[in-house]
Amino acid sequence: MAGVEARLRELGITLPTPPAPVASYVPFVIVGNVVHVSGQVSVDAAGGIKGKLGDAIEVEQGQAAARLCGLNLLAQVKAACGGDLDRVRRVVKLNGFVNVTPDFDPIPQVMNGCSDLMVSVFGDAGRHARSAVGMANLPLNYAVEVDGLFEIA
């Protein structure tokens, strides 16, 4: 898809520095023409969004957390592609994990924060398969974590 960097500028998006792993894993692995990106949490330069959905965090803030995960995914994909996001052909699959209280169920709506970002950036190539599940806890108490598969040229 041509012009991804221009599209990011048009959307007013500046990608963060790709977050470093916090344990024993690598941020991405390339197999053939697919980049497998490790789970990215809802962290940003200000510390990110932590806590449980259904407790102190509502759906809208959860969507913002999922969007942060998406920005971090894009930063990792950009690193995997040697800085060239125009190599991305398709967002294949996103797996979303949402830190929730037992009675919180609008998990798919929370994950739309990440999914909608991918479609905004890549257009139809950003439409993807997806899983969205609620979790009792996430690493470092972040609100959302998302991993993904991206087809590249």
From TrEMBL:
CDD domains from the UniProt entry: YjgF_YER057c_UK114_like_1
Superkingdom in the source lineage: Bacteria
Endoribonuclease L-PSP/chorismate mutase-like domain ranges (all copies): 5-144
Name this polypeptide is given: Putative endoribonuclease L-PSP
Organism: Terricaulis silvestris
